[in-house]
UniProtKB/TrEMBL annotation:
Name of the featured protein: precorrin-2 dehydrogenase
This enzyme's EC code(s): 1.3.1.76
Pathway(s) served: Porphyrin-containing compound metabolism; siroheme biosynthesis; sirohydrochlorin from precorrin-2: step 1/1
This protein's UniProt keywords: NAD, Oxidoreductase, Porphyrin biosynthesis
Oxidoreductase listed as a keyword: yes
One Pfam family cited in the UniProt record for this chain: CysG_dimeriser
Gene Ontology BP terms: siroheme biosynthetic process
Species name: Phyllobacterium zundukense
Residue spans crossing the bilayer: none
Domain (Sirohaem synthase dimerisation) ranges: 168-205
UniProt cross-references to InterPro entries, sorted A to Z: 4pyrrol_Methylase_sf, 4pyrrole_Mease_sub1, Met8-like, NAD(P)-bd_dom_sf, Sirohaem_synt_dimer_dom_sf, Sirohaem_synthase_dimer_dom, Sirohaem_synthase_N
Molecular function terms, GO-annotated: ferrochelatase activity; methyltransferase activity; precorrin-2 dehydrogenase activity
Source organism, top-level taxon: Bacteria
NCBIfam families in UniProt: cysG_Nterm (TIGR01470)
Amino acid sequence: MQILSKPQSNPLPASIGSLAVLPVFFNLRGRRALLVGGSAAATWKAELLAAAGAEVHVYARVLSEEMSALISALSLVHHPRDWCPTSFENAAIAVADSPTDEDARNFLHAAVEAGVPCNVIDRPDFCQFQFGSIVNRSPVVIGISTDGAAPILGQALRRRIEALLPASLSSWARLAKAVRGQISDLLKPGAQRRRFWEEFVDRAFSSGTAPNELTLMNSAHMIAAATPASRPVASITVESDEPELLTLRAVRAMQMADVILFDRFVAVAVLELGRREAVRVCISEDMDHSLLAEKFRSDGKHVVIVRSSLAD
């Protein structure tokens, strides 16, 4: 028997495939953002930076109508002159709409010297980071990148995700943030907390408007007072190595599991769908997996058995 903290096959592959870019999220609240240019393209970036809470400083001699209106509406700081190296002082991020490669190169060089991450609009060779398509259900924010290969694909993905996520998700996420500390104090780690958050997510996607904090905490107190119930062992048969062919029910079961028992024919990509914290146990043909599953279950663990059809 092999007990693993992460999925494993023979031989051991990388658990995360290669990434074209690393998705990160800047906290710009109250931070200085340098924006160079007064064009319509620069206006969109200025609005985006302001929406993230940045103090946006716009350096431009000439402003488009859009930028002029945005500066007035959002009280951005306008510097009616060209940028210079001192413009980067105390900046957390820098964005420029540069008309030529030489201008873009100079801006990048100055940003690197100042230690400020920079982006030059529509000039990827001079960017240290890129803006992707955004799905905004703040505080839930989803960024989509195609590494510049197919922007239209990123936009199509954004539309599809927008259609899946209810507008009320914002209020549910804010509520989750508000009660998280209370839930940690009230409910025990493991089954109790997971039950609460699983029910929370189910309601967020099916109930529309979020309840008030008192109603939600009443639900938490009911879970705290309830007698723990053992869940039956779930069994999943995998017909393919392709994870997208799994049913939603199977994926949900794996994401709720504390322990995942699997045979050697199950693909790593399938096992990656399980909870990151779940213990994964590779079972051999001569093992009595039902006894092993019952042992984990008697310890209060939620167990899922994943078997490949090739094992039969």
